[in-house]
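Amino Acid Chain and Its Fold in Token Form
===========================================
Scope: a single protein chain, as residues and as a discrete description of its fold.
Amino acid sequence: labelled as such and written in the usual single-letter residue code.
Position: the record begins directly beneath this header, with no further notes in between.
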Amino acid sequence: MQFKKFAFFTILSIALFSGCEDSKVSQETTNKDVKILKDRRVSLTTTTNQIISVKESKIGLTFKELEGKAVLLNFFATWCPPCKAEIPHLNSLRKKYDGKFEVIGVLLEQNKDINEINSFIDDFNVQYPITFSEQNFELAKVLGGVRSIPTMFMYDKNGKLIQKYVGIVPQEMLESDIKKAIK
């Protein structure tokens, strides 16, 4: 009986703390076609039709509509269990650091209907912007490719990359990096 419990918790831990991988995600975001933003912007469109302009800078990325805020880009898919599991933590951190920190959910699924995405947002109580255009894949390429999800990139309030995370991340680790990013 003890072995069964140990095996169960081991498998559960591996599933939760590793990322999901989908061949479609991997194929769409490989390094071979990495494009540099230079002087043009990638415009991410949210489910509420907000435009988030992302531009490469000397130290990282700038987010025109989010200047002065630390930004966490969260690359995810609606079918990914670890992606779903981290939503409450991201909501909590966004609320705690309101005005200083923003999460942007970057959906890496093609042909996803807006009604399906809005249903996902409602079902999982997502309280941060979700982007869902082809530009999401462009951004993933610019960042060197996203092979597993969830993958997150933390930028400080000046646009400097602070940390890259692959797989689910404990809330305490994210919070520690948020504190550094908003200083």
